């Protein structure tokens, strides 16, 4: 049974990846926007890294996680959009008539979205290195950034898939993903926590899980191997994934019962 599940996940993930490759304009804009963020923020705001709170950190390394996380949020929407398309063209209903595992029907698009995000993050990192990025923890640190990005993308992909299964509407699935973009800016987006002056924004940054993703990535990029700084992001990702994947699974179960 385990082998059957893995085979189903492989087949449906492969199909989702091939579908994405046939429509490159579905992910290229997100990549370009994330790269644009990196170029503009580094060029326009790098001067503030001279403030004492930055402790001499390179601003490119500080702002890079913003670009990566924005790609994760934008790319995660692909999982929901793929499911909605399958529902609209009748493929989802036909798939329910097959012996394919119900879990694989949900995980296939989600895993495909993670793979898409993995490639996007690599491309963004390449651009950052061409701009002069230096990573305090070397190659292993780059791998940690990739894993954090993919993990955060998994959390958003689970949410996107859940919304798609619940609403069966492309616009609703897209809107449900876009509401998370404010999380990027209600955080330590441009400056360290110590430099945030507004009390309400400090509260928002404290309860915002994106803050801890930023902190984990910045730890490996700037500070080195500091356990707690990295662990905060991993904990935030684990909790978020548990919630969103459960949400997707419950939505899938209801969709199957209705179908």
From TrEMBL:
Residues 25-255 form the ABC transmembrane type-2 domain. It is a multi-pass membrane protein. InterPro entries: ABC2_TM (IPR013525), ABC2_TM_bact-type (IPR047817), ABC_2_transport (IPR000412), Nod_factor_ABC_transporter (IPR051784). Its main location: membrane. It is found in: Cell membrane; Membrane. It comes from the Bacteria. It holds the Pfam family ABC2_membrane. The keyword Chaperone does not apply. The chain crosses the membrane at residues 21-41, 61-84, 105-133, 139-165, 172-193, 227-250. The keyword Ion transport does not apply. Keywords: Cell membrane, Membrane, Transmembrane, Transmembrane helix, Transport. Belongs to the ABC-2 integral membrane protein family. This is Transport permease protein. It comes from Pontibacillus salipaludis.
């Amino acid at each position: 049974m385990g082998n059957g599940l893995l085979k189903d996940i492989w087949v449906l993930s492969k199909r989702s990846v091939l579908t994405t490759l046939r429509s490159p304009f579905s992910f290229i804009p997100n990549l370009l926007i994330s790269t644009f963020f990196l170029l503009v923020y580094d060029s326009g705001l790098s001067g503030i890294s001279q403030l004492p709170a930055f402790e001499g950190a390179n601003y490119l390394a500080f702002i890079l996680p913003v670009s990566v996380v924005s790609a994760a949020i934008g790319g995660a929407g692909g999982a929901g959009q793929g499911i909605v398309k399958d529902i609209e063209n009748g493929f989802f209903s036909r798939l329910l008539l097959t012996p394919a595992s119900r879990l694989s029907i949900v995980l296939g698009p989600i895993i495909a979205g993670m793979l898409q995000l993995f490639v996007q993050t690599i491309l963004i990192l390449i651009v950052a290195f061409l701009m002069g990025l230096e990573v305090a923890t070397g190659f292993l640190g780059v791998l940690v950034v990739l894993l954090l990005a993919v993990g955060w993308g998994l959390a958003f992909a689970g949410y996107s898939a859940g919304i798609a299964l619940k609403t069966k509407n492309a616009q609703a699935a897209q809107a449900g993903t876009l509401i998370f973009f404010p999380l990027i800016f209600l955080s330590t987006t441009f400056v360290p926590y110590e430099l945030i002056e507004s009390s309400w924004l400090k509260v928002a940054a404290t309860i915002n899980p994106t803050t801890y993703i930023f902190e984990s990535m910045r730890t490996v990029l700037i500070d080195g191997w500091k356990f707690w700084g990295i662990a905060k992001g991993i904990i935030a990702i684990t909790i978020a994934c548990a919630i969103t994947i459960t949400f997707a699974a419950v939505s899938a179960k209801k969709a199957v019962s209705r179908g």
